[in-house]
Amino acid sequence: MSKRPSDIPILNLEREIIPGLHIRRIDNKPHGSPPIMTAHRDDYFVFLYQQSGRSILSIDFKEVILDELSICCILPGSVHHFNSADKVSGWMLATSSELIDEVVRRILLDSVSGDVFHVNGTAPFLDEIARAIAGYQSNSGKLISVIVTHLVSAFTGIFAQVIKINEKKTLGNRAAAITFEFGKILRNNFKTRKAPSWYASQLNLSLSYLNECVRVTSGIAVSTYIQQEIVLEGKRQLVHTDLSVKEIAYGLGYSDPAYFNRVFQKIVGERPAAFRKRYRK
């Protein structure tokens, strides 16, 4: 049996003809092999536009299903792989953050990795833009880079627009908006900041009000919300690396691995070692 890495494999786009960019057409036969079956992280964004068929992915331990005329953005750092793909046609665009407009990039980074949205009116535009990018992908040169950058901006901008429209539908009240902002801050700080009061102060709110908003939106307290984010990263490393539980605990900001064990058991219902054993069967 091959040894697992000490960290989750991270793929990059350094060797592409146009650095930071890769696009490919996805066409598979009934019950064909999915694109990438090995769990990994990317240091770039992955945009999936599925025109037909059905595919199932695992993104951060969540099952994600794409069907006809659906899109999905996988954010850098998310552990993912395809489980299956049946009669699938569409496009996969991978691009570094440098090729994405700053406004679009902020919208994407504030979204949830792996959320699926359906597109109808914008579908023909996505297909045409993807074909144009694919046509230029094998070429190089300063002018080509300028053209491709604008095409990538258009393609990713449509994703951001769809995300923003759906975000407005779900953030129609103050509690949801506050929980959304809290989640953004949490994702960038959970390894070093674990006190609910710190997050309340960042939002200029009292802890009791932040708790009220998070409970209304998610059904759990701020402290549990924080622990769930920490445990998610712990799960990634337990399943996809050979780091010890103690090493993982230290990496997540716990000076006492025993405390990490208790937090993990509270959230998952079993200790880290048992979780690792079950997933590696």
Sheet of most strands? 6 strands, antiparallel
| Radius of gyration computed on alpha carbons | 20 Å
| N-end to C-end Cα span | 13 Å
What share of the residues does DSSP label as strand, in percent? 15-25%
**Count of DSSP H/I helices:** 10
Query: Which geometry do the CA atoms define?
Result: globular
SSE ordering: EEEEEEEHEHHHHHHHHH
Give the helix level as a range of percent. Answer: 40-55%
What is the residue-mean pLDDT, rounded to a whole number? Answer: 87
Coarse structural class:
alpha+beta
The first-level CATH class of the largest domain is given as Mainly Beta
Count of structural domains: 2
- The CATH superfamily of the largest domain is Regulatory protein AraC
Q: What's the count of strands?
A: 8
For the record, the CATH architecture of the largest domain stands as: Sandwich
CATH topology of the largest domain: Jelly Rolls
Low-confidence region ranges:
none
Pfam families: AraC_binding, HTH_18
InterPro entries: AraC-bd (IPR003313), Homeodomain-like_sf (IPR009057), HTH-like (IPR037923), HTH_AraC (IPR018060), Tscrpt_reg_AraC-type_HTH (IPR020449)
Keywords: DNA-binding, Transcription, Transcription regulation
GO molecular function: DNA-binding transcription factor activity; sequence-specific DNA binding
